[in-house]
TrEMBL record, chain A:
The gene is trpB. CDD domains: Trp-synth_B. Belongs to the TrpB family. Tetramer of two alpha and two beta chains. One of its GO terms (cellular component) is cytoplasm. Keywords: Amino-acid biosynthesis, Aromatic amino acid biosynthesis, Lyase, Pyridoxal phosphate, Tryptophan biosynthesis. Its EC number is 4.2.1.20. The keyword Phosphoprotein does not apply. It comes from Isoptericola dokdonensis DS-3. Coiled coil: none annotated. The beta subunit is responsible for the synthesis of L-tryptophan from indole and L-serine. This is Tryptophan synthase beta chain.
Length: 430, 294
């Protein structure tokens, strides 16, 4: 082992190298985005969280416990599935566009959300707090949080927009079965945004014994960086799996972007691979021109919401504009600050996918591959097909497209059945 | 104190001019009482009537006015203020309307009642931080209270406020560390807003026990003036808090008088009565002691 001065020099060199990697940028800022735009009352808790997170990062016992939970509880590594019958819809000759799905839908609780939740729940234990609160849109994060709370014996309260409790009644029942209290939020737009406001109010009031287990890569520092770290396993596994399967890196990596946690978790492993094109697909709702969408990069502008500076749907008075998506999980007016930074850097491309395009891709994956995706993930599937067709039109062959299947569609069966007219009350809902 | 000649346009920023809010608090301290700081949102139930409400409050004894910009995502506010803000937005309230109300208060009081704007950061960011400071100063405003903007993120606002001699009121909370109390005391101008309790705005049965200690700690950290808000709703609360604070900030208890379906004149009467009760509270805050706070 080298002596101390040499070790220090090595550490410093490594630190410089790491500082140059997009994948390892630390908060509070991602370029001009991020920060901490929150009431002073929360700063002590955020500082405590950051300190505990940094300590945990350097603690092999923490890593070992998280690895054990990933393996024995979540079921990681999640598989990589090639979907040739689906990929055929990108056009070209067979094999021109190969599509691989990273199967986060096969995780315990049905989505990528469990990666972050288990990491934060272990931090809650380390901090000695006894209560967790969470926000949820589609319910995936709420279910994951209720699950981890049950596993570790924590009290759990989940805030959910009243509109979303109606859209995702099955997940409300699931959270309650797991012992959580679900609080419907009946103010504002009654969706995810307002659930986050209520969770922040609760946290300001009860911060001494309560951890806000935030579900995506937004919010005040350290959440955007910390949640990315807990999800980076998605991309690291997928990168290795693609290399193993096709002998090279993918040409295109695609994911849906609500807050952006599944996308950042996947993108992160490829951020410093210049040849890999990264695509994030936002909810285009009824079309960006309709005004009923959640396409922050097409229809928004930089601003501040929920503790971070980032792209935001807002009017010319700085009021948050209501967002819309067929998917409760993408129905959020802002986006994680790292995505805003990647957008402005030009490192990732963000495009809207309409409700109709997403539901068409949803049905296509069901019928060609026997996989029912979450409607969130269906946005990524539709976008991947669009990009695939573009690649074919450019005459590119032998293209490898990696798509994050961030969640499974069990929770969305009622929405999809109504969309496709398979339920008697279909006309009422459409 | 006077502004140094190089203060504007030369790149240097001046923080040495007298704060209008601070001067008002000093004048009241000399009279042996704290200030009553009253909050109302702009645009509830509409802009014209919110002007009537604010002037009613001034006439009934408020010493410093706090005017809220209604915002879609007010995470520091409880249900009463949020309800008023939602209604104000639904009625079409705009950020620029706050300037009209500021002007109205300045006209009504002959400039003697400092008026602070309370705004979440995004509406100001969207308006343009420099433009907002310029227009607020031109309208006769004294400064701004920023519930979701901590000094760490406030470089742009601090520069703009300094350029236009505006007060910068940042918040401290019972959870603030001594280091953060110092940081906030240094960054603030006018006064430091001490949250009496951990939580959002709204009337409570009792004011947080930690408020008195927080005021003492904030003074020890260098703040010249500390006002206490959150949870103050009665004359007795005001008298209790006014014993040790430079000002008593009341929001929800005043806003509540304006909610509901009573005729507007009756609601204004109620607002005047509650304001007068609170003014009576601050007037007797220090009568049982030998002087103001040290």
């Amino acid at each position: 082992m080298p002596d101390q001065p040499v070790r220090d020099a090595l550490t410093e060199t490594l630190a410089h190298q790491v500082a140059g990697r997009l994948a390892d940028v630390q908060g509070p800022y991602f370029g001009p985005f991020g920060g901490r735009y929150v009431p002073e009352a929360l700063i002590a808790a955020l500082d405590e969280l950051e300190t505990e997170f940094r300590k945990a990062q350097g603690d092999p016992a923490f890593a070992a416990e998280l690895t054990r939970l990933h393996r024995d509880y979540t079921g990681r590594p999640s598989p990589l599935t090639e979907v040739p019958r689906f990929a055929a819809h990108a056009g070209g000759e067979p094999g021109d566009v190969r599509v691989f799905l990273k199967r986060e839908d096969l995780n315990h609780t049905g989505s990528h959300k469990i990666n972050n939740v288990l990491g934060q729940a272990l931090l809650v234990q380390r901090m000695g707090k006894t209560r967790v609160i969470a926000e949820t849109g589609a319910g995936q994060h709420g279910v994951a949080t209720a699950t981890a709370a049950a596993l570790l014996g924590l009290e759990c309260v989940v805030y959910m927009g009243e509109e979303d409790t109606r859209r995702q009644a099955l997940n409300v029942a699931r959270m309650e079965l797991l012992g959580a209290t679900v609080v419907p939020v009946a103010v504002g737009t009654r969706t995810l945004k307002d659930a986050i406001n209520e969770a922040l109010r609760d946290w300001v009031t009860n911060v001494e014994d309560t951890h806000y287990l935030l579900g995506t890569v937004t919010g005040p520092h350290p959440f955007p960086e910390m949640v990315r770290e807990f999800h980076r396993i998605i991309g690291e596994e997928a990168r290795e799996q693609v290399l193993d399967r096709v002998g090279r890196l993918p040409d295109v990596v695609a994911a849906c972007v609500g807050g952006g946690s599944n996308a950042l978790g996947l993108f992160n492993a490829f951020l410093d691979d210049e040849g890999v094109e990264l695509y994030g697909f936002e909810a285009g709702g009824e079309g960006v021109d309709s005004g009923r969408h959640a396409a922050r990069f097409s229809g928004g502008a930089p601003g501040v919401l929920h503790g971070a500076r980032s792209y935001l749907l807002q009017d010319d008075d700085g009021q948050t504009r209501p967002s819309h998506s067929v998917s409760a999980g993408l129905d959020y007016p802002s986006v994680g600050p790292a995505h805003s930074w990647l957008h402005d850097l030009g490192r990732a491309t963000y495009e809207p996918v309409t409700d109709t395009e997403a539901m068409d891709a949803f049905r296509l994956l069901c019928r060609t591959e026997g996989i029912i995706p979450a409607i969130e993930s269906a946005h990524a599937l539709a976008g991947a097909l669009r990009v695939g067709r573009r690649l074919v039109a450019e005459g590119r062959t032998d293209q490898v497209v990696l798509v994050n299947l961030s969640g499974r569609g069990d929770k969305d069966v009622a929405t999809a059945a109504r969309w496709f007219g398979l339920l008697p009350d279909a006309e009422e809902e459409r | 104190m006077v502004r140094p000649a190089a203060g504007r346009g030369g790149g240097a920023v001046s923080t040495t001019t007298t704060s209008r809010t601070g001067a008002r608090l000093d004048a009241l301290r000399a009279q042996g009482r704290p200030a009553l700081v009253g909050y109302l949102p702009v645009g509830y139930p509409d802009v014209a009537r919110s002007v009537e409400a604010v002037t009613t409050m001034v006439d009934a004894g408020v010493d410093v006015v706090e005017i809220g910009v209604p915002y879609t995502d007010p995470v520091m506010d409880g249900p009463v203020i949020q309800a008023a803000a939602e209604a104000a937005l639904a009625a079409g309230a705009r950020v620029r309307d706050v300037l009209r109300v500021v002007e109205a208060v300045a006209d009504r009081s002959g400039g003697s009642v400092p008026t602070l704007v309370m705004s979440y950061y995004n509406p100001v960011l969207r308006y343009g931080v420099g433009a907002f400071a310029r227009d607020l100063a031109a309208a006769g405003g004294a400064g701004m209270i920023t519930p979701d903007l901590i000094p760490d993120e406030a470089g742009e606002w601090v520069a703009a406020a300094d350029e236009h001699d505006l007060d910068k009121v940042f918040l401290v909370a019972p959870s603030s560390t001594p280091e953060r109390l110092q940081l906030t005391a240094r960054a603030s101008r006018g006064f430091v807003y001490a949250s009496s309790t951990m939580g959002v705005t709204g009337a409570r049965a009792a004011v947080g026990r930690r408020a008195e200690q927080l005021v003492a700690d904030t003074r020890a950290a260098g703040a010249e003036h500390v006002c206490v808000g959150i949870g103050v709703s009665t004359g007795d609360h005001a008298a209790e808090v006014g014993r040790y604070a430079d000002g008593v900030i009341v929001g929800s208890a005043l806003v509540r008088t304006l909610l509901g379906d009573d005729p507007w004149a009756a609601r204004l009467d109620a607002l005047g009565r509650v304001t007068a009760e609170l003014a009576d509270g601050v007037a007797r805050a220090r009568t049982s002691t030998t002087g103001g706070p040290s």
